[in-house]
UniProtKB/TrEMBL annotation:
Gene3D superfamilies per UniProt: lambda repressor-like DNA-binding domains (1.10.260.40)
Signal peptide: none
Domain of life assignment: Bacteria
The organism's taxonomic lineage, starting at the top: Bacteria, Bacillati, Actinomycetota, Actinomycetes, Kitasatosporales
Protein name: Helix-turn-helix transcriptional regulator
Organism: Streptomyces javensis
Residue ranges annotated for the HTH cro/C1-type domain, each copy included: 20-75
Any coiled-coil regions, as ranges: none
Amino acid sequence: MNKNELNPDASPEAAYGARLRSLREARGWTQEDLAARAEYSSVHVSAVENGRKPPTLRFSRSADRAFGIEGEDTFERRFREIRHGSLLEGFPEYVGHEGRAAEIRLYEVGVIPGLLQTPEYATALAEGAVKRGAITAEQAEERVALVAERQAALVRTRPPLIFVVLDESCLRRPIGEPAVMDAQFARLAEFAELPNTVLQVAPFDMGTRRPFNLPLYILTMPDRSLMSYAESAQRGHFERDSSSVVPVLTAYHQLQAEAPSQAQSVAMISQLLKGTP
Protein backbone atom coordinates (compact mmCIF):
# COMPACT_ATOMS: atom_id res chain seq x y z
CA MET A 1 0.00 0.00 0.00
CA ASN A 2 1.35 3.44 -0.91
CA LYS A 3 2.33 5.58 2.04
CA ASN A 4 2.01 9.34 2.18
CA GLU A 5 5.30 11.18 2.53
CA LEU A 6 5.36 13.31 5.66
CA ASN A 7 7.12 16.66 5.93
CA PRO A 8 7.88 17.29 9.61
CA ASP A 9 8.91 20.87 8.80
CA ALA A 10 5.47 21.75 7.46
CA SER A 11 3.92 22.42 10.87
CA PRO A 12 4.10 21.33 14.51
CA GLU A 13 1.22 18.93 13.81
CA ALA A 14 3.16 17.44 10.89
CA ALA A 15 6.24 16.98 13.09
CA TYR A 16 4.06 15.26 15.70
CA GLY A 17 2.60 12.91 13.08
CA ALA A 18 5.98 12.14 11.56
CA ARG A 19 7.41 11.19 14.96
CA LEU A 20 4.38 9.05 15.70
CA ARG A 21 4.88 7.14 12.45
CA SER A 22 8.64 6.85 12.95
CA LEU A 23 8.32 5.34 16.43
CA ARG A 24 5.53 3.04 15.28
CA GLU A 25 7.50 1.71 12.32
CA ALA A 26 10.67 1.36 14.39
CA ARG A 27 8.77 -1.12 16.52
CA GLY A 28 7.37 -2.93 13.51
CA TRP A 29 3.80 -1.95 14.42
CA THR A 30 1.01 -1.33 11.99
CA GLN A 31 -1.45 1.48 12.59
CA GLU A 32 -3.84 -1.19 13.83
CA ASP A 33 -1.22 -2.36 16.36
CA LEU A 34 -0.73 1.14 17.74
CA ALA A 35 -4.47 1.76 17.74
CA ALA A 36 -5.04 -1.32 19.87
CA ARG A 37 -2.37 -0.31 22.35
CA ALA A 38 -3.58 3.30 22.54
CA GLU A 39 -7.27 2.33 22.57
CA TYR A 40 -8.08 4.37 19.48
CA SER A 41 -9.20 3.38 15.99
CA SER A 42 -6.64 2.85 13.25
CA VAL A 43 -8.47 5.55 11.28
CA HIS A 44 -7.78 8.00 14.10
CA VAL A 45 -4.10 7.02 14.27
CA SER A 46 -3.80 7.48 10.50
CA ALA A 47 -5.45 10.89 10.64
CA VAL A 48 -3.06 12.10 13.35
CA GLU A 49 -0.02 10.73 11.52
CA ASN A 50 -1.01 12.47 8.31
CA GLY A 51 -2.02 15.74 9.94
CA ARG A 52 -5.70 15.44 9.07
CA LYS A 53 -6.67 15.46 12.75
CA PRO A 54 -4.88 17.47 15.46
CA PRO A 55 -3.55 15.50 18.44
CA THR A 56 -5.33 15.82 21.77
CA LEU A 57 -4.14 15.54 25.34
CA ARG A 58 -5.85 12.16 25.80
CA PHE A 59 -4.39 10.77 22.58
CA SER A 60 -0.92 12.05 23.48
CA ARG A 61 -0.99 10.42 26.89
CA SER A 62 -2.19 7.18 25.31
CA ALA A 63 0.66 7.29 22.81
CA ASP A 64 3.19 7.86 25.59
CA ARG A 65 1.85 4.83 27.44
CA ALA A 66 1.85 2.70 24.29
CA PHE A 67 5.47 3.55 23.47
CA GLY A 68 6.61 3.67 27.09
CA ILE A 69 7.88 7.24 26.70
CA GLU A 70 8.81 9.22 29.81
CA GLY A 71 10.92 12.28 30.50
CA GLU A 72 11.11 15.48 28.50
CA ASP A 73 10.34 14.52 24.89
CA THR A 74 6.90 13.03 25.40
CA PHE A 75 3.95 13.30 23.05
CA GLU A 76 2.10 15.10 25.84
CA ARG A 77 4.75 17.80 25.87
CA ARG A 78 4.63 18.12 22.10
CA PHE A 79 0.84 18.39 22.28
CA ARG A 80 1.08 21.22 24.81
CA GLU A 81 3.51 23.06 22.55
CA ILE A 82 1.07 22.69 19.66
CA ARG A 83 -1.85 23.84 21.79
CA HIS A 84 0.05 26.93 22.90
CA GLY A 85 1.00 27.56 19.33
CA SER A 86 -2.69 27.85 18.42
CA LEU A 87 -3.26 30.59 21.00
CA LEU A 88 -2.93 34.27 20.29
CA GLU A 89 0.64 35.47 20.07
CA GLY A 90 2.06 36.30 23.48
CA PHE A 91 -0.52 34.43 25.56
CA PRO A 92 1.52 31.25 26.14
CA GLU A 93 4.40 33.39 27.42
CA TYR A 94 2.00 35.32 29.65
CA VAL A 95 0.59 32.10 31.15
CA GLY A 96 4.13 30.91 31.85
CA HIS A 97 4.74 33.96 34.06
CA GLU A 98 1.24 34.21 35.54
CA GLY A 99 1.76 31.24 37.86
CA ARG A 100 4.81 32.92 39.44
CA ALA A 101 3.54 36.51 39.70
CA ALA A 102 3.36 38.33 43.03
CA GLU A 103 0.50 40.53 41.84
CA ILE A 104 -2.01 40.00 39.02
CA ARG A 105 -4.27 42.70 37.64
CA LEU A 106 -7.03 41.84 35.20
CA TYR A 107 -9.53 43.79 33.17
CA GLU A 108 -11.95 41.69 31.16
CA VAL A 109 -14.76 42.39 28.71
CA GLY A 110 -17.62 40.08 27.72
CA VAL A 111 -16.71 36.95 29.67
CA ILE A 112 -15.59 36.08 33.18
CA PRO A 113 -11.78 35.69 33.10
CA GLY A 114 -10.43 32.16 33.27
CA LEU A 115 -8.92 32.59 36.73
CA LEU A 116 -12.42 33.18 38.16
CA GLN A 117 -14.48 30.77 36.05
CA THR A 118 -16.33 27.85 37.58
CA PRO A 119 -15.85 24.52 35.79
CA GLU A 120 -19.47 24.69 34.61
CA TYR A 121 -19.01 28.18 33.16
CA ALA A 122 -15.78 27.16 31.43
CA THR A 123 -17.52 24.05 30.07
CA ALA A 124 -20.47 26.06 28.75
CA LEU A 125 -18.10 28.40 26.92
CA ALA A 126 -16.22 25.48 25.40
CA GLU A 127 -19.40 23.64 24.42
CA GLY A 128 -20.63 26.79 22.71
CA ALA A 129 -17.47 26.79 20.59
CA VAL A 130 -18.11 23.13 19.72
CA LYS A 131 -21.65 23.92 18.57
CA ARG A 132 -20.29 26.69 16.36
CA GLY A 133 -17.87 24.21 14.82
CA ALA A 134 -14.86 26.19 16.04
CA ILE A 135 -13.32 23.30 18.02
CA THR A 136 -13.85 19.57 18.58
CA ALA A 137 -15.33 18.00 21.70
CA GLU A 138 -11.88 16.82 22.81
CA GLN A 139 -10.44 20.28 22.30
CA ALA A 140 -13.26 21.62 24.45
CA GLU A 141 -12.19 19.29 27.26
CA GLU A 142 -8.64 20.56 26.91
CA ARG A 143 -9.78 24.19 27.13
CA VAL A 144 -11.55 23.45 30.39
CA ALA A 145 -8.47 21.63 31.66
CA LEU A 146 -6.28 24.65 30.84
CA VAL A 147 -8.53 26.88 32.95
CA ALA A 148 -8.18 24.46 35.86
CA GLU A 149 -4.40 24.33 35.41
CA ARG A 150 -4.12 28.13 35.56
CA GLN A 151 -6.25 28.31 38.68
CA ALA A 152 -4.29 25.51 40.37
CA ALA A 153 -1.01 27.35 39.72
CA LEU A 154 -2.19 30.17 41.99
CA VAL A 155 -2.80 27.92 44.99
CA ARG A 156 0.48 28.26 46.86
CA THR A 157 1.86 29.09 50.28
CA ARG A 158 2.06 32.77 49.40
CA PRO A 159 -0.73 33.36 46.90
CA PRO A 160 -0.52 36.41 44.64
CA LEU A 161 -2.53 39.56 45.17
CA ILE A 162 -5.23 39.52 42.49
CA PHE A 163 -7.03 42.67 41.39
CA VAL A 164 -9.94 42.18 39.00
CA VAL A 165 -12.09 44.74 37.25
CA LEU A 166 -14.92 43.27 35.19
CA ASP A 167 -16.75 45.24 32.55
CA GLU A 168 -20.49 45.00 33.27
CA SER A 169 -20.86 43.00 30.05
CA CYS A 170 -19.13 40.08 31.80
CA LEU A 171 -22.10 39.85 34.14
CA ARG A 172 -24.86 40.63 31.65
CA ARG A 173 -23.89 38.09 29.01
CA PRO A 174 -25.61 34.77 29.82
CA ILE A 175 -23.40 31.71 29.47
CA GLY A 176 -25.06 28.32 29.77
CA GLU A 177 -28.22 27.68 31.77
CA PRO A 178 -29.35 30.12 34.51
CA ALA A 179 -27.95 27.75 37.14
CA VAL A 180 -24.49 28.11 35.56
CA MET A 181 -24.64 31.88 35.87
CA ASP A 182 -25.96 31.68 39.43
CA ALA A 183 -23.05 29.46 40.42
CA GLN A 184 -20.65 31.83 38.66
CA PHE A 185 -22.06 34.84 40.49
CA ALA A 186 -21.67 32.95 43.77
CA ARG A 187 -18.08 32.16 42.81
CA LEU A 188 -17.38 35.87 42.21
CA ALA A 189 -18.77 36.75 45.64
CA GLU A 190 -16.57 34.08 47.24
CA PHE A 191 -13.56 35.38 45.34
CA ALA A 192 -14.16 38.89 46.69
CA GLU A 193 -14.04 37.56 50.26
CA LEU A 194 -10.54 36.14 49.93
CA PRO A 195 -7.81 38.06 51.78
CA ASN A 196 -5.63 38.39 48.69
CA THR A 197 -8.24 39.64 46.19
CA VAL A 198 -10.07 42.80 45.15
CA LEU A 199 -13.04 42.59 42.78
CA GLN A 200 -14.73 45.55 41.10
CA VAL A 201 -17.27 45.94 38.33
CA ALA A 202 -16.98 48.77 35.79
CA PRO A 203 -20.61 49.63 34.93
CA PHE A 204 -21.72 50.70 31.49
CA ASP A 205 -22.44 54.23 32.70
CA MET A 206 -18.74 54.85 33.36
CA GLY A 207 -18.64 55.77 29.68
CA THR A 208 -15.43 57.54 28.67
CA ARG A 209 -14.11 57.36 32.25
CA ARG A 210 -13.21 53.75 31.47
CA PRO A 211 -9.66 53.84 30.03
CA PHE A 212 -9.73 50.40 28.36
CA ASN A 213 -11.98 48.84 25.73
CA LEU A 214 -10.16 45.51 25.39
CA PRO A 215 -9.00 42.84 27.86
CA LEU A 216 -5.81 43.66 29.75
CA TYR A 217 -3.60 41.67 32.12
CA ILE A 218 -0.73 43.10 34.18
CA LEU A 219 1.77 41.05 36.19
CA THR A 220 4.07 42.22 38.95
CA MET A 221 6.78 39.62 39.40
CA PRO A 222 8.57 38.82 42.69
CA ASP A 223 11.48 41.08 41.65
CA ARG A 224 8.90 43.90 41.08
CA SER A 225 9.40 43.86 37.32
CA LEU A 226 6.24 44.48 35.30
CA MET A 227 4.75 42.59 32.38
CA SER A 228 1.50 43.05 30.51
CA TYR A 229 -0.64 41.21 28.03
CA ALA A 230 -3.35 42.80 25.89
CA GLU A 231 -5.40 41.32 23.12
CA SER A 232 -7.97 41.93 20.43
CA ALA A 233 -10.03 39.34 18.62
CA GLN A 234 -7.19 38.52 16.22
CA ARG A 235 -3.92 39.15 18.05
CA GLY A 236 -2.28 39.42 21.43
CA HIS A 237 0.78 41.29 22.64
CA PHE A 238 2.99 40.38 25.59
CA GLU A 239 5.16 43.24 26.91
CA ARG A 240 8.17 42.58 29.14
CA ASP A 241 9.63 46.09 29.18
CA SER A 242 8.62 47.52 32.57
CA SER A 243 8.97 51.11 31.35
CA SER A 244 6.37 50.40 28.67
CA VAL A 245 4.01 48.80 31.19
CA VAL A 246 4.09 51.67 33.71
CA PRO A 247 1.66 53.91 31.72
CA VAL A 248 -0.73 50.97 31.42
CA LEU A 249 -0.48 50.32 35.15
CA THR A 250 -1.22 54.00 35.81
CA ALA A 251 -4.33 53.77 33.64
CA TYR A 252 -5.37 50.62 35.52
CA HIS A 253 -5.12 52.49 38.83
CA GLN A 254 -7.31 55.22 37.33
CA LEU A 255 -9.82 52.55 36.33
CA GLN A 256 -9.88 51.19 39.87
CA ALA A 257 -10.39 54.69 41.27
CA GLU A 258 -13.31 55.40 38.94
CA ALA A 259 -15.04 52.02 39.32
CA PRO A 260 -17.46 51.34 42.20
CA SER A 261 -15.94 49.85 45.35
CA GLN A 262 -15.75 46.14 45.96
CA ALA A 263 -18.70 46.35 48.35
CA GLN A 264 -20.82 48.11 45.72
CA SER A 265 -19.68 45.66 43.05
CA VAL A 266 -20.52 42.62 45.16
CA ALA A 267 -23.92 44.17 45.87
CA MET A 268 -24.53 44.38 42.11
CA ILE A 269 -23.55 40.74 41.71
CA SER A 270 -25.81 39.73 44.59
CA GLN A 271 -28.75 41.50 42.93
CA LEU A 272 -28.13 39.54 39.74
CA LEU A 273 -27.90 36.32 41.76
CA LYS A 274 -31.31 37.09 43.25
CA GLY A 275 -32.72 37.81 39.80
CA THR A 276 -32.93 41.56 40.28
CA PRO A 277 -32.03 43.58 37.13
